[in-house]
Amino acid sequence: MWEWRGLKNKNFKEADIDLSSIAKLKNDMNIYAKNKLHETTNKQNSKDCIKVSQMSNEEEKDKISDVYSYLPQENIEEIENFDEDEMYEYLLKKLDFYHLSNIDLVKSSYVSEQFKTARSLPGKFQRARRSFLKLLGYHNLIECMEAGIDDYEISLLKRGISPENYNVHLKIPYEFGGDLDFSNLSLVKTFPTHEVIHKLIDLQISSGFLVKHKKIYLPYVKDKIYNPDKKDEKQKIEDNFFE
Q1: Domain of residue 45, residue span
Q2: Is 149 contained in some domain?
Q3: DSSP assignment, residue 224?
């Protein structure tokens, strides 16, 4: 979830971002976030709570609890004076800490005009989301299986339904120039992947990095289905060579 505590008491005179635009963006994003997450995160959290309550194995319950305590609070004071190189290295370390491989960091600027049409996007996003899920279920079976998506979950994809703990992610958010083209969508695990991605975006906003540098580093998922264990061609050649 987007948070804006870091935008308070900042010197906006040094930035090209207009103060009124920031205030409007804050309001717009709060409205949009409520609409967008109503059918995804809140519903998913409810399912997870039901799933945990129905488990008879106490050890499995402990594992779930450990996962949900996996996102420690970041020390904002530690990073609020970072330059671009320091922030880039910091985020790379965080991706490694959370074991999120195959994710790039893409430098992107805030596009103030882009968000003016965002209020009409939740409905369009849901339609694009369902079509994208069906596409994956019918035409990306190999990638689904490689990512550990089983037959039942694939059957859900074919109906335009996200499997449990999966979310359709916008690789480039609207406010940074993204759109609803399928090339900008990716199926990721809601937790921890989606949570971590937005956590890393949020800390750049709350620390004032966006206001100071007028840009942000977006954790960018390259594939339609995020698979942290996927190896690129170079890795496959190296593995075959040493076998």
Answers
A1: 17-242
A2: yes
A3: S
